Amino acid sequence: MKFAIIGGSGLAQLAGLEQARRQVVRTPYGDPSGPLTHGRLDGIELVFLARHGYGHTIAPHEINYRANLWALHGAGVDGILSVATVGGIRPEFGPGVLVLPDQLIDYTWGRRSTFFEGPEQPVTHIDFTVPYDDIVRERLARAAGNLGEPLALGGTYGCTQGPRLETAAEIRRMERDGCDLVGMTGMPEAALARELAVPYATLAVVANHAAGKGDSLQGISLEAISATLDQTMARVHRILGEFVRVAAREQ
Ligand code: HPA
């Protein structure tokens, strides 16, 4: 059993990874965000990739999602857990809340969002009714439960293009659409994982109330986002540790 974790903002490295070694991977789609880090957490094999690069230099719309997913798939992983920083649209999704989304809406444009294109590729449609893998979600929920960490089960993740944050009206529209969370990196990542048939789920870390909501009524404080992420990532690390233990036990 080998699991991959894709770390987002605030999670450029996985603390406590033992026997870590980096592997530079090239893919037919170009270079991933950085080398893959192979290592062990509590003796359990794991692969880690920093979505924005190890120095956090790659913006959401510039990420080579295809290369990232291709590289992880090539490493033979059995599943991917993505950690993603988001804004909360639902009032109870305030800073520091952890959410396990079960649906998504894609508002991005111009991203290379499929492996199935080009003259040699047959037209291929994947089923994406349920975008996140139920088993990975269940294990993550169990891991949080074992630790007594509150985790909101369910929510619709709306993926915007970025890198700018949204206007208050855009967030109101997303709310009418049924979005509970807003982030910039959930797509095409989730769809590419499905194209490769790799089970995938997202742990969303709420960094702020979305634009025009809660204490973001007049604006979003980037300093406050940083402070929230600093405080919350220790909890995320603990949950990830328990998650790999739960996943390894169930193999
Ligand atoms: N919008 C989009 N992406 C985000 C936000 C937000 O408010 N906060 C963290 N990532």
Characterise the protein shown here.
The chain is α/β, with parallel strands linked by helices. It has a single domain, classed as Rossmann fold (3-Layer(aba) Sandwich). It is built from 5 helices and 11 strands. Strands 1, 2, 3, 4, 5, 6, 7, 8, 9, 10 and 11 form an 11-stranded mixed β-sheet that branches. β9, α3 and β10 form a beta-alpha-beta unit. α2 crosses α5. The N and C termini lie close together (7 Å). The mean pLDDT is 95. The structure holds hypoxanthine. Hypoxanthine (HPA) binds next to β5, β10 and β11.
Summarize the SSE layout with pairings.
Elements: E1 3-7, E2 18-23, E3 36-41, E4 44-50, H1 65-74, E5 79-88, E6 98-100, E7 103-106, H2 134-147, E8 152-153, E9 156-159, H3 168-177, E10 181-183, H4 189-195, E11 200-209, H5 222-249
Parallel strand pairs: 1-4, 1-5, 5-11, 6-8, 7-9, 9-10
Antiparallel strand pairs: 2-3, 3-4, 5-10, 6-11
Helix pairs in contact: 2-5
This protein binds hypoxanthine (HPA).
